[in-house]
Amino acid sequence: ITIENLQKVYKTEEIETTALNGINMHVAEGEFVSIMGPSGCGKSTLLNVMGLLDKPESGSYRFLDTELLTLRDRDRSAFRKKNMGFVFQNFNLIDELTVFENIELPLIYNKVNASERKKLVNEIIERMNIVNRNKHFPQQLSGGQQQRVAVARALVNRPKLVLADEPTGNLDSAHGNEVMELLCELNEQGTTIVMVTHSAHDASFSNRIVNLKDGHVISEKINKSRSAEL
Ligand code: ADP
Ligand code: ADP
User: What are the residue boundaries of the ABC transporter domain, all occurrences included (predicted)?
Assistant: First the structure.
């Protein structure tokens, strides 16, 4: 991923907020990058732009050889559904759907047929250690289990890129570590991960930390204990 000079301004009535002010960043295939920085520095905006959920005013965002910022709306959402998975702080599971149905959603978006969906969902449920929870609804699960379901949903489609926004923010430290270990395992199997976090502990699982301030990158730090694996 190559990001150049991203600029994002939010306009509300009289106020203009520059959320991204010339972001330059490179993420290698298979890398696990943490984005850190004070509240309001643009972390979530950057993640939303990378997830094609929000559009910047200017700049370039290349993913493999495709420039994503000039894609038409239809192509953009098709690209997102095919290549990206999301993990959010508040899990973002759909309360009215069972665990199985929540995990199945990205496959339905991608028009995968029912028998293939069943196979893929059951595989990932096994991997995430939530086998006996298939028919439960999110509210019947602990926070750690809900986040495992959310990670399963992000992965079921085998996306190239997983975007995680404070994935352990609502979890106690034991469940938080479980989720971080899952993300690491996934990364070791080749998935590129970009994670926003306030937690130095969570960031220690990643290969590199990118620090933002006032909408741009102020420093980067390679995590020596994990970068050797790249
Ligand atoms: P972070 O995730 O680092 O806390 P954000 O990306 O959420 O930062 O926000 C960056 C800046 O953009 C902040 O000043 C925030 O108030 C502003 N901002 C974010 N979203 C909106 C929005 N939808 N409308 C107006 N301003 C916004
Ligand atoms: P649009 O067609 O308007 O771009 P989509 O139908 O692609 O929107 O997506 C609608 C919403 O569903 C998005 O805001 C996104 O947050 C969510 N979404 C889409 N794909 C996924 C996915 N694979 N995993 C989780 N949420 C998704």
Answer: 1-230
